[in-house]
Every structure is written in structure tokens, then in C-alpha cells.
């Protein structure tokens, strides 16, 4: 039996309260993203309080919708123990569900404050991607969201990973692709590109968010194909063949697709969403550019319509 030294998913205990590394890492991810967003917001004269309040509303919204999204596709695993639906520290939240929750909250809160949602979302895009690249390490600690089996030598000699990562990729005696690491590193590169793009004069409002969508969707599509825990549904055979065809470049590089339970479906949901998100975003960017429907640049000032109304109101007598 191969012996390994696994990480303890519990960070510490505060009396009867158990604090898991998963929650700690997600918290650090949110704070890192907030710090980056607040700094950029100051360049546009937006108060840090706006983004702090947005985080306070956005994180619960993201977590709740992400959990609902995951449980909805894994209902058979939860219907016998409804209380386990709330055990988010054990993992089981879907990133696309989190994005839906966060963006729904962002749209509502931005409009409430009188800001254009696209302008605020542009500012938040680098914060989202840095939150994701840190948050994936919560999956690492929980030994989840990993890929198919690999040889230990691949992790040590080909990827040159340290032992503390290699050991954690040993699940019940079988080593697996560290897909959490692949996605995290992909997001590091994406973050660097976003930080460069947002200083370019040609960038139109909404396009930084669009690039974030396309970059994340592209990486997620190919990395998702390696995973063994993908949410799936039963689609037409042509759609499954189309998805497999798009993923075929990975096979030519020597990768094998991760296990997909045929009883759950033949199409990975995250892959389908990734393709749709990438294409829709690309089309919107091209159409906006060709038609000139938006002439507002990312670097243009951001003004709240509600702030303007307050400024225009006549002042009462003292």
C-alpha cells in the first residue's frame, strides 16, 4: 500500500467551530480580488465602500447559486440527506453557478447605485480571475476537481512538482492530473493579460470583461475534459461528437480524457457552457466594434447617474 502524507482539510478549531482550509482559502481569494478591484476603482473616483458592499452581497449570492447549480445536477447524491446540501466546506460548488450569482448581484447593485454594470464589471474582471486562481487551491486541499490517473513519475519528473503537491494528488493509491493547478496557472497568465489590456487606449467598455469570459472559457473547456467529476447531461450523439472533436488537440498532445459516467450523461456541462460563452462573447465584441454601437472607452471617466441627480437638486434654505 502506497503511503502518503495528506494535508489536513481542517485549518483549526475555535471551540465547537471547525474552520476548514477550503473556507479560509476562499476567503483569502475574495480579499485578494477585493484589494485589486478597490485599487483600480480609486483611479475612477469610486469609493472603496462601494466595492466592499458589493463583495458583502456578491459572495453569499455567488456561493448560494453555485451550490444550487451543483446540487441540481447531483440531486441523486443529496436527496437522501438534505442537510448535506449545506455542507459547502466539503466542496461541491460550481464556478459557473458562482458567476451567475455574482453577476446577478452585480447588475442589481450597480444599477441601484447608478453605475453602468459593464463599467463596474470591467473593473472587477481582474479581481474575479485572481479570486479563481487562488480559490482552486481549496479544491487541492479537499482532494477534489482532479483529473484522470497519471504516473507518479509524470508529476515528479515531467511537471517537476514538489512532493507536497504530488502526495495530495494520490487519491486512494492512484495519482491524478492536478487540474486545479492547471486552471490556477492558466488564470495567472489571464490575469497578467488583463492587467496589460486595461491600460490600452483602444479598449472599449465591456471588452475587458469579455476577454475574461473568453480566456476563462477557453482554458476551462480543455481542462474540464481531463476531470473525473464533471457534471454532465445526456445530449444528442452529434453534440457529444462535436465536443470530443473540439477537445481532440489534447489527445494529440498525449492527454487522455477523464472518466465520464455514461449514466449521468455524455456531454460535460462546463464544456458546453464554455463553448457557448466564448462564441457569444466573441460575436458581441465583433458586432459592437463593426457597428460602433459603443464609443465609451475603458479609460473614460465613470459617473454615477444618482450622484448627478443629487448634485442637480436645489439646495434648501439653511
TrEMBL record:
Q: What is its EC number?
A: 2.5.1.145
* Enzymatic class: transferase
InterPro entries noted in UniProt: Lgt (IPR001640)
Q: Which UniProt keywords apply?
A: Cell membrane, Lipoprotein, Membrane, Transferase, Transmembrane, Transmembrane helix
Q: Is Transit peptide given among the entry's keywords?
A: no
Q: Does the keyword Transferase apply?
A: yes
Q: Where in the cell is it found?
A: Cell membrane
Any GO BP annotation: lipoprotein biosynthetic process
Amino acids binding a 1,2-diacyl-sn-glycero-3-phospho-(1'-sn-glycerol): 136
Q: Which GO terms describe its molecular function?
A: phosphatidylglycerol-prolipoprotein diacylglyceryl transferase activity
Q: Which PROSITE patterns match?
A: LGT
- Top-level taxonomic group: Bacteria
Topology relative to the membrane: Multi-pass membrane protein
Q: What GO cellular component is one of the record's annotations?
A: plasma membrane
Question: Which residues span the membrane?
Answer: 20-38, 50-73, 85-109, 116-134, 179-197, 204-223, 269-287
Coarsely, its chief localization is: membrane
This protein's pathway reads: Protein modification; lipoprotein biosynthesis (diacylglyceryl transfer)
Q: Name one Pfam family in it.
A: LGT
What HAMAP family does the entry give? Lgt
Q: Which family does it belong to?
A: Belongs to the Lgt family.
What the protein does? Catalyzes the transfer of the diacylglyceryl group from phosphatidylglycerol to the sulfhydryl group of the N-terminal cysteine of a prolipoprotein, the first step in the formation of mature lipoproteins.
Q: What is this protein called?
A: Phosphatidylglycerol--prolipoprotein diacylglyceryl transferase
Lineage of the organism: Bacteria, Bacillati, Bacillota, Bacilli, Bacillales
Amino acid at each position: 500500500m502506497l503511503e502518503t502524507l495528506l494535508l489536513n482539510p481542517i485549518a483549526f478549531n475555535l471551540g465547537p467551530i471547525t474552520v476548514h482550509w477550503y473556507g479560509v482559502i476562499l476567503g483569502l481569494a475574495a480579499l485578494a480580488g477585493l484589494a485589486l478591484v478597490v485599487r483600480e476603482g480609486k483611479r475612477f473616483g469610486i469609493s472603496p465602500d462601494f466595492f466592499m458592499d458589493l463583495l458583502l452581497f456578491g459572495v453569499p449570492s455567488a456561493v448560494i447559486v453555485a451550490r444550487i447549480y451543483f446540487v441540481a445536477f447531483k440531486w441523486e447524491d443529496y436527496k437522501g440527506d438534505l442537510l448535506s446540501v449545506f455542507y459547502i466546506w466539503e466542496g461541491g460548488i460550481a464556478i459557473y453557478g458562482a458567476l451567475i450569482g455574482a453577476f446577478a448581484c452585480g447588475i442589481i447593485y450597480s444599477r441601484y447605485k447608478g453605475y453602468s454594470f459593464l463599467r463596474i464589471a470591467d473593473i472587477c474582471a481582474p479581481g474575479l480571475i485572481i479570486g479563481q486562481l487562488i480559490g482552486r487551491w481549496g479544491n487541492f486541499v479537499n482532494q477534489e476537481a482532479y483529473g484522470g490517473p497519471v504516473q507518479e513519475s509524470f508529476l515528479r519528473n515531467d511537471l517537476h512538482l514538489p512532493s507536497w503537491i504530488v502526495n495530495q494528488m494520490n487519491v486512494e493509491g492512484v495519482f491524478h492530473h492536478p487540474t486545479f493547478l492547471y486552471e490556477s496557472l492558466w488564470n495567472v497568465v489571464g490575469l497578467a493579460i488583463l492587467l496589460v489590456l486595461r491600460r490600452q487606449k483602444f479598449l472599449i467598455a465591456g471588452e475587458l470583461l469579455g476577454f475574461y469570459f473568453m480566456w476563462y472559457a477557453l482554458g476551462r473547456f480543455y481542462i474540464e475534459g481531463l476531470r473525473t467529476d464533471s457534471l454532465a447531461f445526456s445530449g444528442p450523439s452529434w453534440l457529444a461528437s462535436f465536443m470530443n472533436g473540439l477537445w481532440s488537440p489534447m489527445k494529440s498532445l498525449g492527454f487522455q480524457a477523464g472518466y465520464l459516467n455514461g449514466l449521468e450523461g455524455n456531454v460535460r456541462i462546463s464544456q458546453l457552457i464554455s463553448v457557448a460563452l466564448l462564441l457569444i462573447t466573441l460575436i458581441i465584441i465583433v458586432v459592437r466594434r463593426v457597428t460602433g454601437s459603443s464609443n465609451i472607452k475603458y479609460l473614460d471617466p465613470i459617473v454615477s447617474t444618482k450622484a448627478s441627480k443629487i448634485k442637480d437638486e436645489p439646495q434648501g434654505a439653511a
